[in-house]
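Troubleshooting log. The previous structure file for this entry was overwritten by mistake, so regenerating from the original sequence record. Sequence copied from the archived sheet and checked twice against the printout by T.R.
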Amino acid sequence: AGGAEGRLVASLLYGWGALVEQPPKEPSISMSGQMLVGWWLLFCLIISTGFRSSLIAHLTVQGRSLPIETLEDMLALSNWRWGTEESLYKGGVVEYFVKHTDTIVRQTHSILEVLGWKEGLRKVGEGGYTFLAFKNFISVVVASRYTDARGQSPFHVSKQGISVLPFLGWWFRNGAPFRPRFKDLLSRMEEAGLRSYWNDDVVAKRVKEIRQGTEMNPSQIPTDYQLTSQRSQEVLSLSHVQGAFYVLFLGCGVALLTLLLETVTGRI
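Regenerated output below.
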């Protein structure tokens, strides 16, 4: 397919030139060669286009705003609203916001909305909204209902959080002989990371249980998340351009039949 001589090296060079979009100027003479080169050019066009689009998609990084980690970050944003979960806003949490002397906490409480977690996450998904809830609870909800198989989620859970209830602890009678030993044991468990490990393990098990229940009852998955998953963009992969290989095989088959026909008619 490389010229009048039809040498193998010329054919390989012509095919390589077509792949890098720099084919030689001399076309093939035979009909079978022209047929093969034509289908090969079509194959190279599809493959090169798919490769460029996939490369651009991988190299293009979408701009992302910095996540909100503290109340200061939230108050620094303009036209921003926030709310808390209705089961959280009671008792000690209310006293925390009402009796706190810090200006940041008071400003947060002045326009704090109280609503359910589904409504809160819906507003967060719409943008311009922060939802305050128990970290373990909301982490389980986000991981089980709003996270795909690759671990991607439209929500960000603050890593710092807010210590609203600092008075939780163990109570012993005054002068208990086992108190120093018990305190030492708790300190060692905390330093070894057993508490955080146990907490993460409990959250992971709960997420697994909810996911298994959701698989048996697909109706439990929120509708807005289903639509978001369906509209998710995908980068072109080999499975998306497999039609180009079918075109290549078809072209090779047609060229082979044309070559056989030329050979037979030439002998006749």
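The first strand starts at residue 81 and ends at 85. Archived copy saved in two places this time.
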